[in-house]
Structures are given as structure tokens and as C-alpha cells.
Amino acid sequence: MAERVWERYLTEQDKAHLALAPAPRKGGGSKPALLLVDMYRWVFGDEPEPLIKAVKTWPGSCGLSGWEALPHIQRLLTEARALGIPVVHIWGMENVPGWRDTGPRDGPKLPDTEASRDRKRRHYDLLPEVAPIEGELQLRKKTPSVFLGTPLAALLYGLRVDTVVVAGETTSGCVRASVVDAKSYRFKVIVPEECVFDRHEAAHAINLFDMDQKYADVIPVDETVEYLISVAAEKVPA
Question: Does 141 fall in a domain?
């Protein structure tokens, strides 16, 4: 495998320990589902822009990292749909007491204009490129994790799902919280590296490293697609 995104952030001691005790692969099960986390307008904006420019109009933007991840997420979603893999769209909601009371993310104070009010109205609009289609589950959440306070675990158990593939944002926030909870619910977890993103490069890299060490297999999207195809093929009668 090519150099991992987190390697440049590791110390010499980290590398020495990993040489002695590399993290084992956890593997996927026979019944996966795809979870798309927080794929809403607020973190993308209306067009690709570098982070420092983007936050001047979309304070919650992840800059170019979201737009760079989008084609990979679209590919993953297309493959899952073609293979009959369950897809669940989960995203946050406004005005949740005690969490994000002022919106998805505070940033530079914007003038109160019609344009800024329009952007605020569209904060939680799902991106059309990965919007749900008929038959796909849709849930709203009030916490970082897609599991806490939602019926997601029960829905997945009902579908006999044993593995979740997690895509979306942010790597260090809602993705990580969801991965930890998925593992706590005893699901196997796969994180396609190119299909998650964050506004902070170091946080993205180290959280991928930590999830790969403890809770999930962080693997390339190509390998993820191969896994989905392999489990789908096992269900096709000879």
C-alpha cells in the first residue's frame, strides 16, 4: 500500500512501536451497509474554494477537501446501489439545545444580507450529487454520532447488517464518533480513506490513524469497492 496519509505525523517512537506491533486487519462481514454522514451544503459551499477563502461566505466549509472527496463518495454510492447494498443518509439538524446552538460551525461574522440569509436557510440541504433516492433510509441526528439518539442500530440489526462502511465528514468529528459507536455496537467498520474529509489536515490524518489502529479498517476506496463486490457475489446463486 502507498504511504498512508498519517505517516508524516508519526514520531520515531510511534513508527518503532508499529514495526513491533502493527494493527491487525479487522475485516468485513457478509452483510454491509453504507452510511453517508453529514453530506450537507454547509460544509461544501456552492463551489470548490480553498478553505481560507471559503469560510468567508460558508463558515462551516471544509474547503477543497470535501469537493475532492465527493467523486469518490459518488463512486462508492453508485456501486452500493448497483449491488443492492443498503444505504443510509444521516445528517444533523438545527437548533439542538446544548450543541451547535448558533449553527453547524461558528466562523467569521457575516453581514446580514439576503445572500447570507439564503445560505443559512440551506445549511442542512443535502448535496444533490449524493441525495437519497427512493427506498434509502434517511435519519436526522442531534449529536456527533449517527447512533446516539437515533434508531439506526435497530434498523441495521433488522436488516441483519454486520458491517458499516462510513463515508462523509468530518473525519475528526462526526465520522469518528460514529465509527466508535459502530464498534461499540459490535459492527465491523470500514472507512474508505478517500471518502471522508475534514477542514484540518492534521486532525484528518491522525484520526484516520487512530481509527485504523483501534476501531476500523481504513482502506482505499478501490479496496472497499472490491469488498462490496465480493460480498454481493457470494449472494448470487451459482
Answer: yes
Alpha-carbon distance of 96 to 110, in angstroms, equals 22
Interval 64-77 mean pLDDT: 98
In degrees, rounded to 5, the angle at the alpha carbon of residue 95 between the alpha carbons of residues 127 and 37 is 35
Question: Which residue in the list 33, 77, 156, 174 is annotated as catalytic?
Answer: 174
Answer yes or no: is pLDDT of 101 > 80.
no
State which residues form the domain around 206.
28-42+64-93+127-234
Maximum alpha-carbon separation in the chain: 63
Residue 34 placed within a domain: yes
Across all residues in the chain, what is the average pLDDT?
92
End-to-end CA distance of the chain: 33
**Residue 221 in contact with residue 75, Cβ under 8 Å?**
yes
Nearest residue to 189 (alpha-carbon basis) of 29, 1, 22 = 29
Question: Is there a catalytic annotation at residue 174?
Answer: yes
pLDDT at 238: 40
Cell of 24: 491487525
The confidence score (pLDDT) of residue 102 equals 47
DSSP state of 13: H
Distance CA 41, CA 122 (A): 7
Residue 177 located in a structural domain: yes
Counting the structural domains of the chain, the total is: 1
User: Does residue 178 carry a pLDDT above 50?
Assistant: yes
